[in-house]
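During the no-cost extension, the postdoctoral fellow (Dr. R.K.) reprocessed legacy sequence entries with the updated structure-token encoder. One reprocessed record is reproduced below for audit purposes.
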Amino acid sequence: MEKLVINATTVETVSMTEDEIKALEKTEGELLYELLNPSTEDIQQAEFEIKVITLLMDMGVI
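Re-encoded structure tokens follow.
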């Protein structure tokens, strides 16, 4: 059994229509496809994060 612990200072509620909820739901196959075929934006974000981490390591921050 897994236990999820969330530390939060604020709670927000959102209302969504049934159609909006269905639009957010993805099948396991769709999620796997996205994982194995990242978008150009995802690749650029990862490259940027690697550059930032490398810079911080070079500076001795991490």
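The mean pLDDT is 84. DSSP finds three helices and no strands in the chain. The remaining legacy entries will be reprocessed before the final report is submitted.
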